[in-house]
Fold:
Amino acid sequence: MNELELLQKADQLARAYTAEIENRAAFPSSQAIADLAKLDEPLMQNGLSAEETLDLMNSVAGNATVASNGPRYFGFVLGASLPVAAAADRLALAWDQCASSSDSAPGVHALEQQAAKWVLDVLSLPKESAVAFGTSATACGLSCIAAARAELLARQGWDFNNDGLAGAPDIRVIVSDVTHVTIRKALQILGFGWRNILKAKTDENGRILPEKLPELNDRTILILQAGEVNTGEFDPFDPLIQMARDAGAWVHVDGAFGLWARATEKLAHLTAGVAGADSWTTDGHKWLNTPYDSAMAICRNPQALARVMNSDAVYSSASADSQKNLTLEFSRKARGITIWAALRTLGRSGVAAMVEGHHAQAQHVADLLRQHGFVVLNRVVLNQVLVRGLDDEATESILTKAQSTGRVWFGGTVWQGRPAFRISLSSFRTQERHVQELVEILAGIGPRG
Ligand SMILES: *Cc1c(COP(=O)(O)O)cnc(C)c1O
Structure:
């Protein structure tokens, strides 16, 4: 097969997969998973056929995919891929641009610049902010926290890039006691030491209690959440950010999915005050339904991010216009393209409708499950429904039984020390009939498991 025939074959396989996504098992069968052993081949001295390589990928790994791009997958907050975002990603793949800066790739640079403007617009964040298109909220969170530390140190007269940390003024970090595990990961990588991090007490909904917040000062990074992963709740930004501003602290907001509540007037009140923070992270690949890897680090002071991420050869001229000076990557794909395509196609009203729709679906699921005797643990302010059976054993059993149907998938979690399961509404493909099927399956199992 020549190059064009190979691409055509890949396109055909991709099209066939997408055409049947609605009917695929939400999670692969144990047979399909056992068959993955077929991939265990020795590396050949001489390469094998390209066509047969695609066939193997499709028949073995393709048979063991999780249908997170389908309508009946309710795990984590994975989201699906909007058609235009998936299509734009395919086209950009053919271009194979190295999107470091406008010099290396002017066309895709312009698309990312436009995407950045729209992101700030749709999320109502300060227009002067830099938007870095990174691989994940994890990587983007790490970038923002690194910028926060370097900036707070600079205000103390300390040159972090040149002098490092030895002997530097102490920078403290405060996180919510239900902060996301990837914030913990970022802080550990950056050398803060998890043991040294101050944990702010939260209420029964997972929101930081302002009156219990550890003391703030101008050497503190305060990390807040827009969308706690179990309850979907928001820290009370207004009082917390006011307190941080008064103290000269830096506020970073982890809004991997929850920041998108700002796209609709109906839910924006949940995020009141959040625009007063210094930096924010959010994902495209979750609630905006763009493909992986798609996330954003947003920093009110572009220079604070550009200084710490700077990879310009001439050190003093860190241009905050170049993505290589805002993200962890140097050679990189233009991850902002799928966001550009999604926002251009959905428009403001389309983003709002998607977010409101998932909120309404989540409330509907919660109401129906309560009617069937399940214990819904959260207020369902957003798109997450946190549920238990009548006791812990029942909860575990419900989860196993529901997953084993292959028709739906959602995951388990631990909330306030006890098992629970979490149903996330975040796929543009999920319609009322899929919600009904989910509820029917759960009702059939029952709250006693
Ligand atoms: C998913 C998630 C993250 C991490 O995002 P990735 O894109 O998976 O790295 C961080 N915070 C919250 C609240 C999340 O839900």
